[in-house]
Amino acid sequence: MSTSQGHRSAAWGVLALLALGAFAGCNPASSQPQQPQAPAPVVLGPEDVARVEPQELRSGPVLSGTLQARRAATMRAEVQGAVLEMVVEQGQQVKKGQLLARIEDSSVQDQFLAARTAVRVARTGLQVARAEEERNRTLSAEGVITRRDFEQAQLARNQAQAQLSEAEARLALALQQVGRTRIRAPFSGVVSERLASAGDIVQPGAPLYTVIDPTSLRLEASVPAAQLNTLEPGVEVDFNVGGYGDRSFKGRIERINPAVDPGTGQVRIYVTLPNTEQDLLTGLSAEGRVASMRREVPAVPVAAVDVRAEPPTVLLVKDGHVERVPVTLGMRDELARLVELRSGVQPGDVVLRASAGSVAEGTPVEVRLPERPQEPEPGVGGAGTPPPAGSPPQQPASR
Questions:
Q1: For the chain, which domains are there?
Q2: What CA–CA distance (Å, rounded) separates 327 from 190?
Q3: What are the pLDDT digits (tens) for 220-263?
Q4: How many Cα atoms within 13 Å fall on the side-chain side of residue 230?
Q5: Rounded to whole angstroms, how far apart are CA atoms 395 and 60?
Q6: Overall pTM > 0.70
Q7: Could you give the CA distance from residue 20 to residue 11 in angstroms, rounded to a whole number?
Q8: Are 196 and 101 a contacting pair, CB within 8 Å?
Q9: CA angle 283, 287, 288 (to 5 degrees)
Q10: In whole angstroms, what is the distance from residue 213 CA to residue 190 CA?
Q11: Residue 360 DSSP SS3
């Protein structure tokens, strides 16, 4: 190749590079800046949102306390001595009059035997005194003895009668002491506590057993005196009991203390809870509410409402975004922790709970709620009905 041809080739190469650079500079697509991508929506599950739905709210004074048995008795020793036997165990059911424990009764038995012997001697003495009185009565009538001798016979008979009465009283007391060495159930129930063991030396008044009747429980609670106008005996009370989840129980006000505590301004009330199935146990904490007013209104959990704002607001999911809207509150159910929304939202709207975290207003969200069950239409799943969406295609039957 000649030198002139090489120079021409190099010049053409430079021109080609310049042309490509000019073409790239004229391309409008390469000159525009890249647009920022839209943020991904925040996914909210059923635990993060609540639907505005009509619900039955109940309003009234809230009660709290511990469940106790309406009938309870602590069986105590009535005599001094060693415990010979503790017949029943804690948690065992007992019948009225059933033997629970025995206390040593050797000294008591000795007293009983002595009192019984004294009664026999006194009865014999009374019989002799009566016979002597009758004999002296006859002799006095015949003039054999004086009137004074007859009166002495009458006095002897009266003394014998008094001695017999005293001996019988001592025998009855000794018999009672023997019975006190046997501890028996005062009513049918369950042994809730066993407070002694065989071999213990007990004094009169020492506790041995506690027996309760678990078929009826009682809750003692206090309410402000200003709310007494909503309370009266027989009013129904709804309860939630610790350890039973959302299960509710019902009771009724049995009586109201007629005196107000001057220190607290509270009034003591007593609520009975039937427990015929013995589902509830004494000692459990219970929280109840007097059902003095009931209404079915659109409501949401209290935690979904920002009550610090004025007026109160909720975070409403609308068109895929979070929007803060003011609402008007109405009736409040303290036990169920629900509040009525009178304005600002409509039934069926979805609002955010406090568990949704710090989701700000305007944030795009995607709500994933469980589908509500629908009744199948007639013929669904039968012959000639297309399979549900997402199911594998049916294979044709082989011939």
A1: 49-54+295-367 (2.40.420.20), 62-70+213-291 (2.40.30.170), 78-103+181-212 (2.40.50.100), 105-179 (1.10.287.470)
A2: 53
A3: 888 888 888 778 888 888 888 888 887 888 888 899 988 898 88
A4: 18
A5: 63
A6: no
A7: 15
A8: yes
A9: 125
A10: 6
A11: coil
